[in-house]
Amino acid sequence: MLKKPKYGWSKITIGNWSDGCSYINNVPIDLLKAFINLYKYRNPTTVKFDAEGWEYIIVFDFYEIHIITEKNDEYILKTIPCNINNLTNELVNDILLNIKEWVNFDEDSPLDKTQIIDLCNRLKNERRKFNAHIY
């Protein structure tokens, strides 16, 4: 889901869609909090990204993801079917695999490694509770 960050940029990939994300957003923390809220409150949740020249909003739900891209005053909607549990695993694994680079994503404002790890653990816990409730 997340490419290894480099020079303040990374790439988000969901299904056959991908786009850049920059240090302007707190990418790992914003995504982790969105996924936590999805599982905890059982309602769709959103994250907005500034790609430095255009913006996009990702709406996370349990069975599909909606992405609204605003570029040159035009809006494009893309809907992608997904398995949110698989996407959750991918998100956590991608963040932890490159934790050092995510902590230093914005060289001027390093992120708190402990906070990122704690959010990964909270997300895994919320997913576990949600899935235990379903089955």
Q: What's the tally of helices?
A: 4
Outline: globular
Instruction: Note poorly predicted spans.
Output: none
How much helix, percentage-wise, in residues? 40-55%
Strand content: 25-35%
**Structural class by SSE content:** alpha+beta
**Main beta-sheet strand count, sense and barrel state:** 4 strands, antiparallel
Rounded to the nearest angstrom, the distance between the terminal CA atoms is 26 Å
- H and E order: EEHEEEEHHH
Number of DSSP-assigned strands:
6
Give me the Rg, rounded. 15 Å
Mean pLDDT: 95
Read across the widest sheet, the strand sequence of neighbours is: 3-4-5-6
Helices, strands, pairings?
Elements: E1 9-14, E2 17-22, H1 27-41, E3 45-50, E4 55-60, E5 64-71, E6 74-81, H2 84-97, H3 99-103, H4 113-134
Antiparallel strand pairs: 1-2, 3-4, 4-5, 5-6
Helix pairs in contact: 1-2, 1-4, 2-4
Account of the protein in words:
- This protein is an alpha+beta fold and 135 residues long.
- It has helices spanning 27-41, 84-97, 99-103, 113-134; strands at 9-14, 17-22, 45-50, 55-60, 64-71, 74-81.
- The protein has a four-stranded antiparallel sheet.
- Helix 1 runs parallel beside helix 4 (113-134) and helix 2 runs antiparallel to helix 4.
- The mean pLDDT is 95.
